[in-house]
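Run log, item B.
One chain of 174 residues. Sequence copied directly from the ordering sheet:
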Amino acid sequence: EKKILAAKLDLAIVQRTKPSQYLEYLPILEDELVIICPNDHPLAGKEVSIKDLKDETFIGREKGSGTEILLENAFLNFGISMKTGWICNSIAAVKEAVLHHAGISALSKYLVQKDMENQTLNCIRVKDFHFVRHFALVFHKDKIHDACFREFVSTCTQLGKEGMHNLICHGVCS
């Protein structure tokens, strides 16, 4: 969003957190986070309360990420704090850390679908909280956009959330 405001980017897909009055946001995708763990984790495959995760060590991504904010707020809503262990700079590193029992993590269902199907990783279902992120196509309201730009935005809008889901699953999940 900062790069769009500084005219360094024309368009981005962002997790919507704090909207800017100068930017246009078109919702395009809802992404569910799943709690991943090694197959031999005591909570693997179980449905638990978020409070049952209070003693678990979480493997996270960069500080201030939308995922981190969502998780911390969820824990705070239940009066507990989240214990973060490692901070990794890639999804692959997060998965490896979880596989090597450094902790559990929350990742996009799109990014772990194959791991679940292959039974490389397992998940912990949380019954009292649904971890959902909202993504939007974002661009500057006042910038003049060419025909290709407008056509791309129109295509994304016409696809809608279900179409974007199918597009992602065709590319990532297959």
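Observations after the first pass:
- The radius of gyration is 18 Å.
- The longest strand covers residues 23-37.
Flagged for discussion on Thursday.
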